[in-house]
Amino acid sequence: MALETAVRIGNRQAEMFATQSMGLCLTAAGRYAEAENFQIRALEQARILKARRYEAVILGHSAEVALAKGQRANALLLARTGREISEETGPGFAGPILFGLLSLLEDKREDQGAALTAGETLLQQGSVGHNHFWFRRYARARIAVGGLERS
Known about the structure:
- The chain is 80% helix and 0% strand.
- The chain is mainly alpha-helical.
- Helix 5 runs antiparallel to helix 6.
- The radius of gyration is 15 Å and the shape is globular.
């Protein structure tokens, strides 16, 4: 309903936020096929609006979808790009999310561990609340699948 209202009144920022929120919720629910369409649209909207913080978050959720589709290399690229943007815009907004993903996606064990440490450090320093949920989601997934740790 928020998305429909934002479109109707022409509020592009609210439209992007509502689209991004739908993608986020669908990703959290593991409904990746549905989430992907929202993420594609939200990413385009965020880039038009130059909403770089949201671009970083959307890239993170897009990385989870890519991983679920078996596109590990693409997922890694998306997560790294999101992390770079996060460093530019302030890592407290989405950094732990992206480091959590990188702990799953990096090929080298030491890079996975460094990502976990960096994410935990940002959480301890103070980050936006959504980071706690997403970082722990990825940290638990890492443990549940044996860490995806490869030499």
